[in-house]
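We were asked to recover a plausible sequence for a given structure. The inputs and outputs are reproduced exactly as logged, with field labels preserved.

PROBLEM: sequence recovery
POSITIONS: 332
GIVEN STRUCTURE:
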């Protein structure tokens, strides 16, 4: 079926019908509201192009129980990530690229399941790391971080935080490595409804929501994540991408231990970095980034430009731009 460029309520696309039967079976017995939606990337459909013949494009479909986390994600896209809003932001900030996914449709299937349809997202960064890379070179890692800071600034300025920064939610397009997309908004939180920041109240939400290895201390403690929470999570991701592990990576089944270690190293960032890098040189950009992020107050607005500049400067010395093709080898 053809899709328009604006997200609309649609029936389950025919190109996903066979897949949806398999997906629905996989989702049977997984009705807990805390479960993540499943994302599938198999299909080609016709796209309305304004010309005489429709163009074929690839799409991804996300599927979950009707009242699961996907409902939260749908709300995010309807409120904060419409295509027109994203384009206006890009023009206003002179950005050549902004990695906010394009949600082209959504709807209900069999009155029990909700789905979202996206333009094809590519491959997750985690899948690329699992191919054998395990770690990223500084150049690639810094390029990705600058692009993600662009995304986070956009999201934050539109009253939301992402809430689950992880390589599983970051996508690269094998056919065009200038494209870096931040997806996975099932834990998105409206931290500033109507321009009024929510109060910091530990225990007001389910504790430890998100990917345990990377979530912020605020999320561990059941406080609504704020802007600093996303930046803290991004710092943990960057550290793992460069070193291959975090001090709590082997204890993820002990959430209280993970939280205690994050609390400990938040007070001593240099110790955290020395532990992870061992005898290797510690990137000054990462040290400065983490020190600035852990110093942020709960409601404080980050200086996104200054944080980006920490990584843009070393990229300039490498004679590369954050908006060039990411320096990473991957297969489709």
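RECOVERED SEQUENCE:
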């Amino acid at each position: 079926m053809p899709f328009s460029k604006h997200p609309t309520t649609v029936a389950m696309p025919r190109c996903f019908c066979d897949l949806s039967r398999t997906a629905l079976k996989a989702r049977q017995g997984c009705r807990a509201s805390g479960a993540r939606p499943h994302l599938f990337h198999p299909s080609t459909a016709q796209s309305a192009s304004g010309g005489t013949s429709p163009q074929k494009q690839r799409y991804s479909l996300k599927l979950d129980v009707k009242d699961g986390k996907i409902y939260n994600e749908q709300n995010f896209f309807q409120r904060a990530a419409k295509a027109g809003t994203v384009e206006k932001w890009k023009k206003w900030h002179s950005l050549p690229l902004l990695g906010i996914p394009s949600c082209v449709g959504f709807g209900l299937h069999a009155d029990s399941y909700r789905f979202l349809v996206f333009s094809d997202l590519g491959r997750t960064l985690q899948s690329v790391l699992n191919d054998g890379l395990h770690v990223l070179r500084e150049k690639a890692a810094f390029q990705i971080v600058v692009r993600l800071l662009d995304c986070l600034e956009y999201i934050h300025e539109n009253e939301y935080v992402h809430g689950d920064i992880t390589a599983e939610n970051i996508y690269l397009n094998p056919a065009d490595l200038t494209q870096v997309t931040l997806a996975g908004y099932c834990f998105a939180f409206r931290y500033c409804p109507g321009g009024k920041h929510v109060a910091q109240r530990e225990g007001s939400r389910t504790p430890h929501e998100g990917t345990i290895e990377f979530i912020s201390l605020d999320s561990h403690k059941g406080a609504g994540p704020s802007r600093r929470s996303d930046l803290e999570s991004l710092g943990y991701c960057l550290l793992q991408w460069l070193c291959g592990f975090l001090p709590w990576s082997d204890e993820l089944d002990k959430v209280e231990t993970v939280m205690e270690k994050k609390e400990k190293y938040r007070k001593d960032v240099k110790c955290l970095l020395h532990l992870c890098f061992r005898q290797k040189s510690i990137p000054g950009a990462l040290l400065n980034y983490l020190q600035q992020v852990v110093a942020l107050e709960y409601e404080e607005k980050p200086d996104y430009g200054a944080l980006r500049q920490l990584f843009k400067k070393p990229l300039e010395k490498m004679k590369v731009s954050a908006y060039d093709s990411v320096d990473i080898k991957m297969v489709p």
